[in-house]
Amino acid sequence: KNYDEKVVRQISKVAWRKRSTIEGRITSIAASTIASAPMVSIEVWDASAGLTLQFLGRREIAGIKVGSVIRAYGMVGEYKGALTIANPTYEIIKS
User: b/e string for 3-21 if b means 16 or more Cβ within 10 A?
Assistant: First the structure.
């Protein structure tokens, strides 16, 4: 069965190593490095739970700010014990 990326899942229902689309409010943005490469981490929460979006190789992302609502799609993984989607496809729903 092919995954339909138009179906938005509650964050609490996403599964590790499965492609998922989530939508939620950005609660924090942090720029850091991983193995000396730049990375931006964005925490996104909906009514059920939260997860982290990681943008590897980036120092900032234009148009993204705390309080914005974002929809993101990608493979769900794990980083430091938290569910994470690395380099997701995304769109800002409400800035």
Answer: eeeeeebebeebeeeebbb
DSSP-assigned letter for residue 46: -
Q: How confident is the model at residue 56 (pLDDT cuts 50, 70, 90)?
A: very high
Asked whether residue 95 carries a pLDDT value surpassing 70, the answer given is yes
Structure tokens at 7: 């179906």
The end-to-end CA distance of the chain, in Å, is 34
At residue 1, the pLDDT reads: 43
Q: How far is CA 52 from the centre of its chain?
A: 5
Q: What is the largest CA-CA distance in the chain?
A: 39
Per-residue confidence (pLDDT) for residue 4, from 0 to 100? 64
What residues pair up with 65 in beta bridges, in sequence order? none
Looking at the DSSP bridge assignments, the partners of residue 33 are 38
CA 23 to chain centre: 9
CB 78 within 8 A of CB 49: no
